[in-house]
Amino acid sequence: MAAFHPLVASRVRLAAPLLPVAAPAAVVVAAAGPSFHQRRFSAIVAAATAPAATEFDFKAYMGERAVAVNGALDAAVPAGEPPATLHEAMRYALLAGGKRVRPALCLAACVVSGGREAWAMAPAAAVEMVHTMSLVHDDLPCMDDDDLRRGKPTCHVMFGEPIAVLAGDALLALAFQHMASVDSYPPDVDPAKHTARVVRAIGELARCIGSEGLVAGQVVDLEMTGSTEPVPLDRLEYIHLHKTAALLEASVVIGAIIGGGSEEQIERLRKYARSIGLLFQVVDDILDVTKSSEELGKTAGKDLASDKTTYPKLLGLEKSREFAEKLLSDAKEQLAYFEKEKAAPLLYLANYIAYRQN
Amino acid sequence: MALSSLFVSLPIPLPKLPSTSKSSRFLPIRASAAAAAPSFDLRRYWTSLISEVEGELDAAMPIRPPESIHNAMRHAVLPGAGKEGAAKRAPPVLCVAACELLGAPRAAALPTAAALEMLHGASLVHDDLPCFDAAPTRRGRPSTHAAYGTDMAVLAGDALFPLAYTHVISRTPSPDPVSHAVLLRVLAELARTVGSTGMAAGQFLDLAGASALGEAEVMQVLTKKFGEMAECSAACGAMLGGAGPDEEAALRRYGRAIGVLYELVDDMRSASGNGKMRSNASVLRALGMDRALGIVEELKAQAKTEADRFGDKYGDRVLPLYSFVDYAVERSFELQDSAAKP
Fold first, then answer.
1. pTM assigned to the model
2. Considering its fold, how many domains does chain B have in total?
3. Where does A58-355 sit in CATH, by number?
4. Which GO cellular component term is one of those annotated (chain A) (predicted)?
5. Which ipTM was obtained for this model?
6. Interfacial A residues in 215-234 facing B (CB < 8 Å)
7. Pairs of CB atoms within 8 A across A/B
8. Does the distance separating the beta carbons of B184 and A180 come in below 8 Å?
9. Alpha carbon of A118 to those of A59, A69, A343: distances in Å?
10. B24 C-beta neighbours (distance < 10 Å), count
11. B240: CATH
12. Count of alpha carbons within 13 Å of A310, Cβ hemisphere only?
């Protein structure tokens, strides 16, 4: 199938004018210092003739964030400390690659809310730990029973079930420990407001992943999987809003809180995150029926094989794509409220989620 | 795998027996404690705390959609009075006692006390899973996975961990009297205790068969699985009560000794479970009864020595700490009739 999405035309518009990763020498000199990306962006905008929105180098942005987040994750899990096998299992699951979309959302939300990116690195690492933990437990034989994740054997296949359960529990604990520790933050945070922000952010993360967030989505999903009745649309939306969108919401909202965002900024970013969260899952459903296992790095067609309800099954492929388009424009609408340059990563992240191929 | 590589190089809390001078130094206080005994009734103190903690837990987990997960979470944390008796809620009691020792209001520590039970309950649910201990019952009732399915049990544990943090944040009176900075230290302490170097390490070592080995390994499993939880309880109570560094350190040592002591006595009292995670291999088989009795005496002396530090400054408020030590060893009363509240 040629075009996977009716919006594929705009994908070409986004992809074509991407800047080369290496910026011109003059720009690099100007870019030294804490607001590297912002200044480089401004410099390019000033010199460019093309529309500003196409000038942001999303690929480089994501690449740099992934490196920084991987560094933070690597440092956060005590590799040398016993029990070695448990830490090895945690690292196996956590450092298996991946695009680090949730940490990137967290970092970008911090910056768009007026904070420095470094303030949000610990929360960004924490949401990736939570995400990894949910995947490790999700893959267990008593849950989805998956042998393959990102093209590699799953944690329980490598280490056995009990260690996979413990590694997940330990990653969840580490996420909160890492976020709560004073040492996880740079010295330049606002001393008068930082601790209260961290407390609120931890509460937000905990709420989004608990029995009214991520876990609620998994529970309703489990209950639906056993049933022979087709899942109604509102139930499907409930599952995705909780199973996927809740953690994206947490990522964005805790970034905004740590960045010192206003209540209005936080709520707009929350709405943005819920839209792209649902979008994420709609696109996932579409990819499952349109892509091969090799392209996805996980078992394709699994939803069809397991008779799972998906958007394409309920709405048809075209209507699913239209729904995705609507969600994308809802998300972008919230971003219009923010300073355009600072919101560019969030705009591109929304587009990325809409147009990703795996 | 070489088991030796797994072991945490922590100082196993095998305390030195207190010197004679130390023992005699604490005797007068003990005597005054005994004299003041009618003014402190551990059973009443404990019983009233159990009902307050259960009230917090009950309110923290209303049945709301999706009902199945909330039912499973309640099953895990609010076991009620099964045929082996109700939960004793020792971690919360220790937490509140440490906070009250320092003269801080009980309300400062109660949310954290309830959170300790949520974290404890979550660990027990995962520990009972078929891939671990495969325990069909806990406290005389079906274990959570037996009642709700393995998948729901995994998720109930996963949801109880974050609920504990939410509860501490939303219910602790903060920023006054508990500052945000203290709240963060408490959250980090709770998370570290259930994490890869705390309880999860204990479960892992148990899984790896460490408790079938020698005394050092057995003590390490006991320390990781039980000592650190109790240390965390006492440390959180200390922080919430506004302890200074020395007081916090003393309460940590006290908590750790009490946690191991409690478990060891449990193991000596019964060969099979009545409420706590069991070590996979019998601790007694590895230690031998004589050595186990010796360790009980050492831990008892250590805990009393730590409590002793507070005697001069806090007077009678140290009495709960003393009486826990004796209770841990003697189990002089039962708590179950008092804890039947759902």
1. 0.85
2. 1
3. 1.10.600.10
4. cytoplasm
5. 0.85
6. 215-216, 218-220, 222-223
7. 175
8. yes
9. 20, 11, 17
10. 10
11. 1.10.600.10
12. 26
